[in-house]
Specification:
heterodimer, A: alpha/beta, 12 helices, B: alpha/beta, 13 helices, about 30% helix, about 20% strand
Chain lengths: ~325, ~450
């Protein structure tokens, strides 16, 4: 068993950096815990809980994202934590302070948990390794690092799939769009494979597909219609405008024509297929409004479940021994 | 006689006897217990162990019992960080690292700050190195002014100042016309051009080998085509210009294949590989450890096997350290932001021995790729210990195990993937110009060196 930076000797989560390598039982435990934070009579409602009372959660966003930061902030507050939001990009590092200097300073402010978003793949690993040396009581939660991982998004996607589909073992899941740059796709692939999804498809033009997908067990399609045939779950990815500048795509119009999810394309999937999107959506680029707002869309449920799942991870991190 | 030798050697050189060691001297086909007799900076005799030499009264006897004795190592790429990067390392610290690694002659690339594009800078570097009087230092001159890939440097002037060839370091000449002109001009004087095969566009933003690992980790990839496209361009320009080229740091199976064919075609090329690439592959990049960030990147297992066989069959001539000490501020960063490079002078020999052991090669075959082969690339009569040879000698314990840590490394850089690990093979004594400059058992360096702070 390889040494893991995020799971301790008792098999508990010490940090959450990636879904890769987290055992199936532990993922299911997180999903079960998340269920306890939803109102049993109305699963659209999140309940309050005291798990993090007296604890301080620092949101360290080296890359700006108000929406993601807010979901972590709400989750922490629902658990009775004190929350400090730091948009680090606009403060210390631009004054020449190094990343690890920033971490040392914040660790000295009686933090219990860092929620980290960073533009570079692997940045939370550097922070977690450093924290393990200087302040091992602090827990690191990856809120998205470069192209690498966005584990809470993958866990909330798994929760959503479980909620609507029950079991993972008979599902065909299609991930559509800019997989090359997507931390959401990578984290979803690891989580869903661990949970036993037998068929995961990647659908994108060749310029947006990373190397090594087949070796990760995926079926790769460049034709959207072909890839969607018979799937149970469709995970659409956001397409960022700068992809046009990097010579990866000619235009959003052409992209929508070939890879945008319309009602017509959706009809190729199973009749009860669900449509997911990590947000924020580009309507008319990767997804048609009729689909985004349609009966098969579970996009808003994802947002609600996201709070519960983040609460689950935070509460379990707070309980683990270092 | 090199200027280094004239300046560094005291008026009266000691008469030395290296006794009881096992000599490995590939050029002279020696691989047996041999005593070495040294006077006036040169090797005067080799005898069977224990014999006396008439009329030779040694001033000092160096006991090499149980050790291996070989020509001092010649490293084709070691960054000494001067001028301009003294906060990463100094000439003093890195020349000590060289000696402690058994390296008695090294080539330093021109990517300093400012780059080595003016004779004055080269003279200054040579002068500083001479005053430290340890390893022989051969600078590479910049191929273009400021390494910008636009204007040619005064190659003839730089050559007179002591440059042994011309290079861009790892920076590209984006404009192929400029590269062709630079090679043409160098050919005029038959100067060697040292080129990294790296296309300036394909994989330019990459930080790891394009493959399963980069795909999984979400690290921007450097495809093998980055190397093969550049090699094809270099070979075509060699055919056009007739220039002599040394290919720096091969990394891929496909690249090695192209070099093999170019050699068969008769192009005047030599090639090297960095010692870490004999061992490490992309899968080894554990937990985004920035110490694994190198240029070119560690590639797949298949590529590593091709590097090992290319080194065995002579497609790759030389193993070099590609030494690059880096300070924590530039290295302890997220993988993609960390400066590429490893500190490697002191690991060159142990990691080469490890290659030989793992690949079933003899010690002599490993030593050849660290001594006489790089001497051939430099066009120098060095890297061998025949009678009359300049007494640059490395004595080492092939099986001594030591821990790679800040206490044991003389280099100012601690940026190595082997940090904290045990490694086999350690240099014990080093002679330069017939003078003992390093003796680990007596606490390190000869007079003139202050102990490490």
């Amino acid at each position: 068993m390889p040494r893991s930076i995020q799971i301790n000797a008792n098999g508990e989560l010490n940090h959450l950096l990636t879904t890769e390598g987290i055992p199936r039982a532990l993922i299911l435990k997180i999903l079960d815990r998340a269920k306890t934070f939803l109102d049993p009579n109305d699963p659209k409602e999140v309940v309050n809980a005291p798990h993090l009372a007296g604890k301080s959660v620092f949101n360290l966003f080296f890359e700006n994202s108000t929406r993601t930061r807010t979901t972590f902030e709400i989750a922490a507050k629902r658990l009775s934590a004190d929350v400090v939001n730091l948009n680090v990009q606009a403060s210390s590092t631009s004054k020449g302070e190094s990343l690890l200097d920033t971490i040392d300073n914040l660790a000295a402010m009686k933090a219990d948990m860092f929620v980290v978003r960073h533009g570079q793949s692997g940045a939370p690993y550097l922070i977690a390794k450093h924290i393990n040396k200087v302040a091992p009581h602090i827990r690191i939660m990856n809120a998205g690092d470069g192209r690498h991982a966005h584990p809470t998004q993958a866990l909330l996607d798994a929760f959503t799939i479980q909620h609507f589909k029950g079991d993972f073992h008979h599902l065909r899941v299609a991930i559509v769009g800019d997989i090359l740059h997507s931390r959401v796709a990578r984290s979803n692939i690891h989580a869903l494979a661990t949970l036993g999804v037998p068929e995961i498809r990647a659908i994108a033009p060749l310029t947006l597909l990373p190397s090594g997908l087949k070796e990760m067990g995926l079926q790769v399609y460049t034709d959207l219609a072909e890839g969607l045939r018979g799937v149970d779950v469709i995970i659409m990815l956001r397409l960022q405008n700068e992809r046009m500048r990097g010579a990866l795509l000619p235009s959003t119009q052409e992209y929508f024509k070939h890879y945008g999810l319309t009602q017509e394309k959706l009809a190729l999937a199973k009749p009860d297929a669900i449509v997911m999107h990590p947000g924020p959506m580009n309507r008319g680029v990767e997804i048609d409004s009729a689909v985004a707002d349609g009966a098969q869309s579970v996009i808003l449920s994802q947002v609600t479940f996201g709070i519960a799942v983040r609460m689950a991870v935070m509460s379990m991190l707070a309980e683990s021994q270092h | 006689m090199s200027p280094t030798r004239m300046m560094s050697v005291p008026a009266i050189l000691p008469r030395l006897l290296i006794r009881g060691g096992h000599l490995i001297d590939p050029v002279n086909s020696v691989d047996e217990k041999t005593d070495l007799w040294i006077a006036d900076g040169s090797l005067v005799a080799r005898t069977e162990p224990g014999k006396m030499l008439d009329g030779f009264e040694p001033d000092e006897i160096i006991d090499a019992t149980g050790a291996l004795v070989c020509p001092g190592l010649i490293d084709l790429s070691a960054r000494l960080r001067e001028p301009g990067f003294e906060y990463k390392a100094t000439l003093e610290s890195e020349m000590r690292a060289a000696i402690a690694g058994g390296v008695t002659r090294l080539v330093c690339p021109p990517d300093t700050d400012p780059p080595l594009d003016e004779p004055g800078l080269v003279e200054m570097l040579k002068h500083r190195a001479r005053n430290l009087a340890q390893t022989h230092v051969h600078p590479l001159g910049a191929l273009t002014i400021g390494l910008k890939g636009e204007q040619l440097t005064e190659m003839a002037e730089l050559s007179e100042a002591g440059c042994i060839g011309f290079s861009q370091g790892p920076l590209p000449v984006v404009n192929t016309q400029v590269l062709m002109r630079a090679m043409q001009y160098a050919r005029t004087f038959d100067y060697a051009v040292w080129l990294y095969p790296m296309d300036p566009w394909v994989g330019r933003t990459g930080v790891a080998h394009s493959g399963i690992v980069s795909g999984r980790m979400g690290l921007p990839g450097v495809p093998v085509a980055n190397e093969t496209i550049a090699l094809q361009t270099i070979f075509e320009l060699m055919r056009v210009t007739g220039a002599r080229v040394h290919i720096c740091r091969l990394s891929s199976a496909a690249g090695i294949d192209l070099v093999r064919r170019a050699k068969q075609e008769g192009l005047r090329i030599t090639a090297d590989v960095a010692v870490h690439h004999l061992h490490l592959i992309d899968i080894d990049i554990a937990d985004f450890d920035p110490n694994f960030r190198v240029q070119p990147p560690f590639r797949s297992q298949r590529d590593r096997e091709a590097i090992r066989s290319g080194l065995a069959d002579g497609t790759i001539d030389v193993v070099c350290s590609d030494h690059a000490p880096i300070d924590d501020d530039a290295k302890q960063l997220p993988f993609g932001e960390a400066e590429p490079g490893v500190t490697a002078l002191e690991l060159l020999l142990p990691l080469s021995l490890k290659w030989a052991r793992e690949s079933g090669f003899t010690m002599a075959q490993a030593i050849q790729r660290l001594t006489s082969n790089p001497a051939t690339v430099l066009g120098r009569d060095a890297g061998q210990l025949g009678i009359g040879a300049q007494a640059d000698i490395c004595i080492f314990q092939p099986n001594r195990v030591w821990t790679v840590n800040a206490k044991n490394l003389f280099s100012q850089g601690c940026n190595t993937p082997y940090f904290g690990l045990d490694i086999e093979g350690q240099v014990s004594t080093v002679l330069v110009d017939g003078r003992c400059v390093f003796d680990r058992s007596k606490g390190g360096f000869a007079a003139g060196y202050k102990p490490r702070a």
